[in-house]
Amino acid sequence: MKYELGRCLLRERLQEKGMSLEELAQDLHYKPEKLSDFMENKRIMPLKSAISIAVTLGCEVNDLYELITSESAVN
């Protein structure tokens, strides 16, 4: 099964944790603009960033994006 990334769910994960974008940026030593770009789907999180964000927020990497499944045809 093939997966595509849908929209970023970082905003929702921050709300669940009760954390602001600025607090997360400070914890990770990132610029808030970088995280904002992820949230607005202007940039896709590199795996290393996604792991750091997930660990900090206490969630799984898979929880940071909507995952869209598609069946790939095998000929």
UniProtKB/TrEMBL annotation:
InterPro entries assigned: Cro/C1-type_HTH (IPR001387), Lambda_DNA-bd_dom_sf (IPR010982)
SUPFAM superfamilies: lambda repressor-like DNA-binding domains
Chain ranges of the HTH cro/C1-type domain: 10-64
Pfam families in UniProt: HTH_26 (PF13443)
Identification of the protein by name: Helix-turn-helix transcriptional regulator
Biological source species: Paenibacillus chondroitinus
